[in-house]
Amino acid sequence: MQNLWQKIIFGGDLQDQFFFWKSYFIESIKAGTIPFWNPFSFSGTPFLAHPSISPLYPPNIIFFLFPVHIAFSVFLFVHIILAGYFTYWFLRKTQDKISATVGAILFAFSGLFAARIYAGHIDIIATLIWIPLVFGSVTSAITSKKKKDILIGIIGLTLQILAGYQFVVLLTLELLGLFVIYHVVAVHSRNFRRSIPGISRALLIFIGITIAAYGLSAIQILPTFELVQNSIRSKGLPYDLVTWGSSTVETLKLFIAPYFFGNPFPENYSYTGPGPNYFELIYFVGILPILLILFYLGKQIFLIFKNKSGDSLFFFYLSSILFFVLLSFGKNFFLHPLFFNLFSPYRLFRFPVQHLMMVVFLLAATTGRVVSQIHIPKLQFVILFFIAIELLSFDTQFIRLTDMPTKSFDRKLIDVLKKDKEVFRLLPDYPVVSQVRKDMDFESSSYYQIQTASGYNPIILDKYYHFIDLANKQKQSSIPYYNVEIPPLDPYSPYLDFLNIKYILSDTRGDLVANGVSNKKFQLILDTEKYRLYKNSHVLPRFFLVPKGEVYPSEKALEEALLTQDVDLSGNVLFLQKDIDLSTVQLNCQETSAGDVAVISYTPHRIKLDVKATCNGFLSSSEVYYPGWKATLDGKSVNIYRSNTAFRSLFVPQGEHTVEYFFVPKSYYIGGIISLVTLLALFIFWRRYEE
Description:
alpha+beta; four-stranded mixed sheet; globular; 23 helices; 691 residues
């Protein structure tokens, strides 16, 4: 039993990312630090702004009440219960208890949630469960105009936004938009002119709830927007990458035949289906709900042929299902490129198959509605029983306990790195498929507080990623091939030393150091069957003084210099013309050395340096440039310049100085003000709104 409590629920991304992210978040807060910045991945990157961290999502309190490995199980259990409860609450508005229970079980225990638990998609699960609450309250607000429904809709949508996975929010808003169209057609189409006030009111409620929810969540969503705008996703992903994971007619068979492509589990693996993987494609609901819907559809068609009115809400659900199924086909649907080109969110998210998440909810709602038309309680119970048994027997295969993510790590490797007290970076020089991740995973760097030049994260800062491509002499972007990590860096690149990479961890199956022209600059520290750890004898310090600066008229010209000239970044710093006027800084260095820099203190959000400059020059660094970083020279604010494509530099005059860098993300202050103003507006609305 004691060993059981040392286990953690299995989940792919949970083991690779969320365990380390939540640990860093919790430990930072407990230490009295708000972790706005993470210096341990990708040479430094925003932390709280990442949508998957969801720092202001209320259920995250669970991670402060339980040990992290236990908290994940509690977190998931609570959310599955909420998924069922919210669906039941929504369906009970128009249905009896048994049919509402059928819909609730179908949604909460579908293959959608079971597979996401196994895949470790904590953020997706947390965002999905709010769909029935948001849809139920907003649609009620549109039809009834009750103040209570409007406020529940605002709160529900706000919590869904704060939960983190914004693609689910987009799908929810799309479904609500479809409902507005349905409402206008079903209620107001007979006398359009007289219905203009009613139509306007429905649109205002929908738009008002959306604006209010984003206003309340601005303190979190605004920094996230800033991060995305500075990431590799800012200009959108390539179409081939976006549409990887498109549905086909065959993949839809997984709704009723979950092992159509074979077994996905490692102990009996036989999966032969398309990518990206089984767990992105499985949305199992069982055959009985589909048969019930088809039977009811036949009945409705028969009634229409008999000139009797059909079930308009049922047909709305079916039309919405068709809409999301077609979009899930991605590149296999001829209109998908239109969505990709016209709507920027469709250039940010991969896997069109995820549209089927909304299909599962709609199938649950539709099934509940069909069962409500069966006025025989015993038959309803039989349907409920068989649906529950089929789903639960399927789900149990996905719920597993496993060892803590850190158990397989090589303690000797970690101890070697932890004993070095200098400011340095480690380069994990291997892709995400490497065996070495079992010895030290990418995102474990924040757990052990070892600063690294790589990581595992779909939102990588664009300028930093581009610098890695330039360091590899790669003219074309590597994003189509590496989009959750940087491409393996050439250890013999002239810019490796600049990145303050003191150690290189290489996979023995693709050791770029050993395969190089010479390894005289690298000392072999550890040599195992799976990895080799090298020490770089030519590493540059994190901060150093540079006597010269060069200005380039454009990004392209600067990049061309880095690509073709092998610029010596230890003695020169490169700027864009728009960022700095060199005539104002009066460089006067005659010596090759501009002085010395000593690190007095280094924390994630504040760095203090002792600088002794022999002449006017630049304090160059491999610290990543990002909005919100400020600097002072002897207590006075000074400009930070973006240099060498992606990094921070500042001008330092001759003499002895104290330099401090500190991170003050303005986007949180602006977002906080917007959230407070929105909250005040809602308070006034609550007091004055008349139903």
